[in-house]
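Exam revision sheet. Question 4 asks you to relate a sequence to its structure. Input first:
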Amino acid sequence: MNTVLVTGAGTGIGRAVAEKFLAEGFQVVAVGRRPEPLRELERTNPLKIRAIPCDISKPDDVKKLVSYLKSDATFGATLSVLVNNAGTYERKSFADSNDVDWTSTFEVNLFGAVRLTREAMPLLEKNQGAIVNVSSTLGLRPVSQTSVYSASKAAMINWTKALAIESGARKVRVNCVCPGIIDTPIHPFHAKPEAQTALQNLQPLGRIGKPEDVAHAVWSLAGPGSEWITGAVLSVDGGIELV
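Answer key, structure tokens:
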């Protein structure tokens, strides 16, 4: 039995990733800041899902999480995939941003993933596992009013490649997906059908993405058949990066 740890697993992309791996036979460690969405997910399959509230922007929370996993013979001992998905997003111009905006965004979008990966690496190395980082097409091609978020996601892409080089000898693979416009609660258009309609034509494929679209991509980089893929950066964006 293999186990995947997914951050930001309560809603959106993280939940879809957790459900995809569960459907493929994995156990799931679902991590997030808000307990109730995690508990709701856990109740769907309590034998194979372990919900653990954790704020990855807090080093002590991360240490406690990984310490627990290292002592758990069921979930921790079989950890073979880490999906660094947790993120925060706010549209704000560079001129309006301040040190708090930059620090808080990087703490969640980059540093949290870095510290969790560092702590969990011995488990992943033991199981010759895989890491998938969830970045964004804005990390490849930023737009106005996103400088803080885009910079954090660009850093994640570069870190993915560097870590892939360093982790190859450990037999741990590291890849990255870059979602485009995805219908998740992180976006203000999530509950506005008229706003979603206006966004459809921005993509060559004619629709915005669903969390499940990203989940399938994450599985393709971590599941069977991906054993020779590392350092890849995969855009999952309906082609929006091309226009």
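Marking note for examiners. The first helix runs from residue 12 to 23.
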